[in-house]
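Ticket 4471: requesting a sanity check on a complex prediction with alpha-L-arabinofuranose. Repro inputs:
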Amino acid sequence: MKKTTICIDKNFTVSKVDERIFGSFIEHLGRAVYEGIYQPGNKFADKNGFRKDVIELIKGLKVPVVRYPGGNFVSGYHWEDGVGPKSERPAKVDLAWMVIESNQFGLNEFMEWSKLADTKPMMAVNLGTRGIEDAKNIVEYCNLPGGSYYSDLRKKHGAADPYDIKLWCLGNEMDGPWQMGHKTATEYGRIAAEAGRIMRMVDPTIELVACGSSSLTMKTFAEWEATVLDECYDIADYLSLHQYYGNHTNDTKNFLAESVAMDEFITSVISICDYVKAKKRSKKQINLSFDEWNVWYHSNEQDKKLERGVQGPHQLEDVYNFEDALLVGSMLITMLRHADRVKIACMAQLVNVIAPIMTSDTGAWMQTIYFPYMHASVYGRGTVLNTVVQSPTYESKHGDAPFVDSVVVYNEETDELTLFAVNKDLDSEMEVTCDLRQFEGFRVTEHIVLYHDDLKAVNTEAVPGAVSPLSNGNAAVNSGILTAVLKKQSWNVIRLGK
Ligand code: AHR
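Returned structure tokens:
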């Protein structure tokens, strides 16, 4: 049997996990908002139209932060259209997704919904078709207690207390030619610096995320990051990364090796941030916000046939299979391994649109990718230990890829240790050992396994539990050594405590 050794040391840590690494994203796109989180009249909706069944599933994920309202959508959005009396809100054409936006759900509803879903907002401003003035106004509307036009308007709209939104994205994917108001790096860097500066004058306590590249494959990658940071280093706190993967050629081995590419992407962006830091002789460190990540490709062909100009179409509705869940697990492990610099990350998206949660008029269910996301979010809080994984490797388009991706997190509050591992070997089991003698008295409390014989197995409304985790792993600690035989193609969560 192949063998993997995992080495950890109690005192050799990467960083405390910023819980916002388990964030997600709701965009006005497809059925994410309408029919996703908001569906007045539905039998699961509360008096405000919020889907209670969806909120329950979101709570299961313990989502600390939700990015809103886009995405590409935000680059043409007028936030004022979505506040105040619903009967007075205009329906508008959304050119990002070529649909009609009714504006029946907006900022006021999102803030109400966030409270119910136990999450916090990560708000994006429109730096595409709009600019500094509007960015200033929305911060004033949200965060000032009153006594000014926009803060009083919020009060008039029924929100007596400020929304107090701490985290703000300075636009979205401004490097992308598809983006409304697409800019060169210098143009964007300048507007990000000025918008951020004025937003912070309104509320000095806010944190700001500047746009990095839309993916590692953008031709402008690296130069974009360096130029943007040159312009807004002193204003921004985080630089964003976006990346989606797909198994386009039905080559699962290479697909599962994408975590290697993700790791390289993160490492490169850290280097660029630190290059600009050195160049500026700055003491400040820019951290990363991986605020769009997921698998996205299943719906590509179908979406080419979508009707334009309708409301809430079935758009980007990827039906995720079991192998997607494995890569999602590996992506989560990869980000946790960089917890010293990746402070925010958003699985894109949360409901119906490339999402872990799907809805119909008659119910809501969990896609395969729900499970690794839930496990990482629920059990991955604490301090990431520097986890040295000595795993056999296989050849991939990204060079040698380890069969096992793994990370160990120690939760000081609960005195629990959790080892996450994906065995990407499609043919054989893997024996994993880890010396735990520094963690005296620790034993396995649960070994959760997500496994399916069929890499293409999916959860649907008709068969919602086809791919589900089981607490049936065989991990055990003997004389301080943890040993587990990981099934081929499996996601594993080994929980340890006293
Ligand atoms: O998440 C879907 C889209 O992907 C977002 O709107 C955009 O930012 C990205 O290109």
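Notes from triage: Residues 27, 70-72, 172-173, 214, 292, 348-349 surround alpha-L-arabinofuranose (CB under 6 Å). Leaving this open until the requester confirms.
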